[in-house]
UniProtKB/TrEMBL annotation, chains A, B, C, D:
PANTHER family: ISOCHORISMATASE-LIKE DOMAIN-CONTAINING PROTEIN, PEROXYUREIDOACRYLATE/UREIDOACRYLATE AMIDOHYDROLASE-RELATED. The keyword Hydrolase applies. This is Cysteine hydrolase. It holds the Pfam family Isochorismatase. GO terms for molecular function: hydrolase activity. InterPro entries: Isochorismatase-like_dom, Isochorismatase-like_hydrls, Isochorismatase-like_sf. CDD domains: cysteine_hydrolases. Keywords: Hydrolase.
Length: 209, 209, 209, 209
């Protein structure tokens, strides 16, 4: 699949690159490790971000809420994942697990979106607004998890009128069948392009010339 | 799994019950038929709606855009499903396929939400607003397709702060593995309850007393 | 005030040009007539739309809900305007008052947005989505009423990231002090440009060359 | 005007109680002082919040973005107010002006909503979501400025399906005619109740019994 990008109208959305998810020693890393290693997750995230920076494509960090004491306690109906976070304290503010992976840190010119409470980086945040104020029409959604935050962020992006690209080896999930669902069953119904990192980098390079 | 409902705060969202989807002779029926027959889709939809009416639970119809000539033609980037509709003319206004199934017709007191362009019944419609004006906190999302419109409507409902129930045999999809993805892989991350029609009806009956 | 427009990225949003509002004999015309005649409302709306068409600028109709029997009756809290419509049946579907002014009819290529229930043309409609699918970044908001639908649509447009232009003599209100509030007190805090029809037409003409 | 509240379904939204706005020495205080003193702004805000706490009504802080270096610099079209903040550095993070008034500090059980970029506390924040997760149907919107953030937050609240109360002497503006516009011209079209602090306190006291 080939796809053309206008570097001034495209953004890479890097979702939840927390140590707790993608770094050895992270709270959720043991569940993610098999798929993450099989697809080369962290290497590919480094490659996608480096390629975007070389092409002067906007990078936006789209972070989940960093857990704080009291979170979700007064809510009428936290979802199953949020009830899990209440116990596990995933991405806790002030801890190593709640920091971004050391190779995936914001740089000058990047934009860090408001934290999302659940799965979609658009819900209850300024992501749509920041995309408009930076004149972005095309989003490339990478990071974790393929079938939760990446998929919900991408489903919302499509409903909001954006062109959506998924990158099948710049994401991961707890089970291989979740990757299959994200990229073979569901993604093809809402995403405009589903690429490999290699294909994306070629497209970004082509867009630079 | 048991789940309690307040009949005054609950709504059943019936998504896309078009002849083209769920009736013999419909344009998409051949793709849906195997799963629909296996789960007893139309029987269960009849049962869910009848049970809701007996319990005086609000029923809302959540319909996809009825295709009209020119639809999507000037859009910057219709999604893959929309490009398919451009060719197939699914749910065309003024045709039998674009009518609701004869046993699933709106009655006095039901609310028909504005038509959605893509998968989520919340996106670009008055669904959230109508739920608030009717003081609904809990939504039960039934109809088709399990992994597209039902799942996107439910993901949005959760992000908007609603309690979300899926009903595993009151929906269908093109492939059994799409049902598995919707109810075993993805649903458990965002839905507050995943029931069978029988369990839902018991809960509605319990709520009436 | 001068303002430059890219004709491919600009849309004119024509809000609520119903006979009940802006035509002699309309239900609300007697309240609007003094200001409407003073500013030359209908003439200026004709001029704005004609100028947009000549420049091939997208025109979008942004209509209020056409009243139907039962509207608002089951709502928890209709707003004061909606309670008025329940009595007056303004913009009733199937009546002359619920039709657009004869000189302000949609033409091929125009887009008619879903009907809004209250004041903002963005709330509970597909307006934001249609703007994105047509790659619009700048909106010019004209029609009625200056301090209700025009102002709420414009406040929403700014919050959603659009560039917003008001046109002080292509709108009207029930009282002169409402016009003053819209254009001298409130508009300057959220609108990016506040022009006269003459200034807008000059800007559109300049954009054509 | 009398209005009844259910204490479990009501929230007070306290918008932008920053020193820069409402405290002597604040950057914008000189422009606000005449109206603020005339209506007794800070005294009435203290009274509203104290009354809400006694009735166990949820208090939510709805803060504007605290200015940081770089804010708005890369945006396509900041609005006139935002361009002013770029120069004035109003509500700068880490400064006294960017702190809440000492008598209007969050307490245990209060909720602090994500910061808004412009006027509406709902736009690009988690306000709607937090209201739903706390089962709130009625909002009382107080703080500043009457015709910008209070009015936009209230217009959005109505469009989102909430019952909206304005409090005419628990807000202020730069000019008396802006107060007139907010409470006599515009508010009556979208707000369900417009009270004085005294009337609100009586209603809250009645709701406690």
């Amino acid at each position: 699949m080939t796809q053309a990008y206008d570097t001034r109208r495209t953004a890479v959305l890097l979702v939840d690159p927390y140590n707790d998810f993608i770094s050895e020693g992270g709270k959720l890393w043991p569940r993610l490790e098999p798929v993450a290693k099989e697809v080369g997750l962290v290497d590919h995230l480094r490659t996608v971000i480096a390629s975007a920076r070389e092409a002067r494509i906007q990078v936006m960090f789209v972070p989940h809420r960093q857990w704080e004491p009291g979170d979700y306690d007064t809510w009428a109906h936290p979802n199953p994942t949020q009830r899990g976070i209440q116990e596990r304290h995933s991405f806790a503010r002030g801890t190593w697990g709640g920091e971004f992976h050391p190779d995936l840190q914001p740089q000058a010119g990047d934009i860090v979106i408001h934290q999302h409470w659940a799965q979609s980086g658009f819900a209850n945040t300024d992501l749509d607004f920041q995309l408009k104020q930076h004149d972005i029409s095309h989003v490339v959604v990478v990071g974790v998890l393929a079938n939760t935050c990446i998929e919900s962020t991408s489903r919302f992006a499509m409903e909001l009128g954006y062109h959506v690209t998924l990158v099948r080896d710049a994401t991961a999930a707890f089970l291989p069948e979740m990757m299959h669902a994200a990229h073979e069953l569901n993604g093809p119904t809402f995403a405009h392009a589903i690429l490999t990192t290699e294909e994306l980098v070629s497209a970004f390079e082509a867009a630079r010339t």
